[in-house]
Amino acid sequence: MVEKMIEKLNSLSPMSGELSEKIRLLAVVESFNAGDIILKEGEVCRKASFIARGLTRSYYLNEDADITSRFMEEGSIVTAWISYYTQKPGNEFIEAVEDTTIVSLHYDDIQKLYALFPEFNTTVRKQVEHAFYLSEQRTQLLRKHTAEEKYKLFIQLHPSLMQRAQLKHIASYLGMNQETLSRVRANFAKRHS
Asked: Where are the alpha helices (DSSP H) in the chain?
């Protein structure tokens, strides 16, 4: 599992053998069952994790509503960005949607790797740029499109998630209620059958 993370990091920017070996020594592999909460609201996110297997979602509570903010599947980095960056308690949950295995590096270890291996700064910068790109993509999805356009873009960008995630979580991710998403899906299916 750690090797999958090393491959991912090398794909962002080639790392030296010494850096790769140090990451192998520091990495922690954890497994979660579907429905397990990986991080709770009010906790400090002290790690960045690579998803070796499975699917997670980030969500927050707004009044009594559960709002999905991100889905992360195999090959993704999962963390609670605001809490991780500030090292203060956050307001989001991270849940394993499926049985999930993650490979994590602790915040303090990542800071040490920056100092010991300047090349690691480039690798992580490229990952953070990608995370920012995905965040901006979602912002535009929510603000610039009709319900049907949101659905069409979602299935183009995340085709496997329609079978892997609950409809209510997809609906909240798209900024609509489940009934609207069901109607949009039915209309879309009629036009594309």
From this structure: 2-12, 17-26, 81-86, 107-116, 118-144, 147-157, 161-164, 167-173, 178-191
d(CA 174, CA 185): 13
The model's pLDDT over 167-181, given as tens digits with 9 standing for 90+, comes to: 999 999 998 889 998
Q: What's the pTM value of the predicted model, to 2 decimals?
A: 0.88
Residue 144 pLDDT more than 80?
no
Residue reference for tokens 């429905």 = 35
d(CA 74, CA 5): 10
* Through-space distance between the first and last CA atoms of the chain, rounded to whole angstroms: 40
150: its two tokens? 């949101």
155 with 192: CB under 8 angstroms? Answer: no
